[in-house]
């Protein structure tokens, strides 16, 4: 399985920290967020990783290079200023991701979720998403989950973690340009072709300096 790390965002809410440092390179417990992901991907046996860039992309390339330090082969997908949003970024990177389901992880999250439990085959589904308990900044959640593991739009909603396995078929017919992922996931839900799981472990969307500080304290306490 190949993987894509989404790292193109500007990180407006993290300013001034992100004025000179791309958000995925912000350190958590002494290690940049992006490096946590690269280490986990390498441990699960992933060898090909695509990373997209827009804001301060050169800094990301300088920090990661070709991925050899992690036993990975990293491909770079450079986007225009402002980025292409999630779906647009994936569409641009599809030639690097192959014709099989691939993993996608947001570069600005931290989680102890074990990536290796994600399905390698989607068995007819267009995607599989990891949902987590709703954080304070997203109390209404995003998607609901049936007892059979089908993602729904109605019901007790959970928050999309930013970790998923997606089929290239999800993006069939989608033109290039700035596009969000949610409309495509909603289409897959309407077709009954989006599965998911609820993860109750540690997860943080490192979207503000306050959340970064809280995560640092939590990991220091755990250590």
Automatic annotation (TrEMBL):
PANTHER family: N-ACETYLMURAMATE ALPHA-1-PHOSPHATE URIDYLYLTRANSFERASE (PTHR43584:SF8), NUCLEOTIDYL TRANSFERASE (PTHR43584). Coiled coil: none annotated. Keywords: Nucleotidyltransferase, Transferase. GO terms for molecular function: nucleotidyltransferase activity. Residues 3-117 form the Nucleotidyl transferase domain. InterPro entries: GlmU-like, MurU, NTP_transferase_dom, Nucleotide-diphossugar_trans. This is Mannose-1-phosphate guanylyltransferase. The keyword NADP does not apply. Pfam families: NTP_transferase (PF00483).
């Amino acid at each position: 399985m190949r993987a894509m790390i989404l790292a193109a965002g500007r990180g407006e809410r993290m300013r001034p920290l992100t004025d000179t440092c791309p958000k995925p390179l912000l350190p958590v417990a002494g290690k940049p967020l992006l490096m946590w992901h690269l280490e986990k991907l390498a441990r699960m046996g992933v060898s090909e990783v695509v990373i997209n860039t827009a804001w301060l992309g050169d800094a990301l390339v300088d920090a990661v290079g070709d991925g050899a330090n992690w036993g990975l082969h990293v491909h770079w997908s450079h986007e225009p200023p402002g980025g292409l949003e999630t779906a647009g970024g994936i569409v641009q990177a599809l030639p690097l991701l192959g014709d099989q389901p691939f993993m996608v992880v947001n570069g600005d999250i931290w989680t102890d979720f074990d990536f290796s439990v994600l399905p390698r085959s989607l068995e007819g589904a267009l995607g599989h998403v990891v949902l987590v308990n709703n954080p304070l900044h997203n109390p209404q959640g995003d998607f609901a989950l049936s007892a059979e593991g089908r993602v729904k739009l109605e019901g007790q909603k959970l928050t999309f973690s930013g970790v998923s396995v997606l089929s290239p078929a999800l993006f069939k017919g989608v033109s290039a340009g700035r596009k969000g992922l949610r409309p495509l996931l909603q289409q897959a839900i309407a077709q009954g072709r989006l599965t998911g799981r609820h993860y109750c472990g540690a997860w943080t969307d490192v979207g503000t300096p306050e959340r970064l500080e809280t995560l640092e304290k939590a990991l220091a306490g755990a250590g």
